[in-house]
Amino acid sequence: MLKSRLVLVLQVSVGLLAAGYGVMFTMLDDWRDTYGIQETGLGFIVAVGFFTSFIAQLTLAPLADKGHARRMLTFGFALNVVGALVMAFGSTLPVFILGRTLMGIGTGISIPATRRIIIVSDRDNVGRNLGRGVSIEVGGFALGPMISALTVGAFGLAAPFLIMAALILLAAVVISRANVPETPPEDRTTEPPTRHRPHPVRARCIHRHGDRHRRVAVRPRGTPGGCLWTPRRNADADRRNRGNVLWSDL
Fold first, then answer.
1. Does the pLDDT of residue 210 top 80, yes or no?
2. What is d(CA 35, CA 133) in angstroms, rounded to the nearest whole number?
3. Is the CB of residue 118 less than 8 Å from the CB of residue 129?
4. Which of 41, 56, 62, 150 has its CA 20 to 30 A from that of 21?
5. What's the predicted TM-score (pTM) here?
């Protein structure tokens, strides 16, 4: 699949995920009248999807930077399809909450992975592609209520979610057949945070008997530049070389 076509498919997929959220909002009155769910329960159904999506993005989105974007995309789409089916055939408050939770987690996993793949796929047009993706996402969210308004009366309450499940599944199949690029190994966030590393500004020169410190660095006499941080066992081995200067973390 061409790079531009893959980006377009991913952008449309984000719009479909947003539309899956939007189809519900014109159905709240129908759920209240048909299933007897009170306003408090309806509000909780709406809120739980946003909260679970927020938590999923906050906790799982960094995995997309570590080479797992495609897996996240597949798993997120699967959760959205299952959640939409649960919403389609649900009739009680707990079932609707379960469906919304699955869709929220799936969306929270899929959208960061989709954006990461878009960035990696076309590094020369990142701003354009992400901006267009956000526009399609907003348009999909606005399209959702229109889909439910046009289909509920003719086909029943399950119709909007069945349509969205089918469309998301179709998008997942198309993406699965494409060569989806991952973050290059050299760009993956696998290193420990830099705040745990000693900084040269926080170091001081001490006598070679400074091995009482937890970590030291060895610099041979006459060597210019900063210090080379080494494990303590290396410092102990090099301590036998007279004239060495040891550096210690403050």
1. no
2. 36
3. yes
4. 62
5. 0.70
